[in-house]
User: Which sequence fits this backbone?
């Protein structure tokens, strides 16, 4: 019987629940605080961190030579 990891969002504790693989996923109550604000952890899940879009240089649409967001006022073009 596989074990499923749960994380309690109320107290931050994590616990394991054993249940049949054929059983439907359901909300398990936290054994510590009895809260049902728990979420199942994905076992072996590869949680890919969301890459923030690289928005370093060139942000704002300026030409780089001016600090304004538009090159209309920098007079270099
Ligand atoms: Zn809890």
Assistant:
């Amino acid at each position: 019987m596989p074990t499923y990891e749960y994380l309690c969002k109320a107290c931050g504790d994590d616990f394991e629940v054993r249940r049949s693989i054929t059983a439907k996923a359901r909300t398990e109550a936290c054994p510590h605080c009895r809260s049902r604000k728990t979420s199942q952890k994905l076992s072996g899940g590869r949680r890919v961190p969301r890459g923030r879009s690289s928005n370093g240089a060139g942000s704002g649409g300026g030409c780089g030579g001016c600090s304004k967001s538009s090159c209309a006022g920098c007079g270099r073009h």
Summary: The first strand starts at residue 3 and ends at 8.
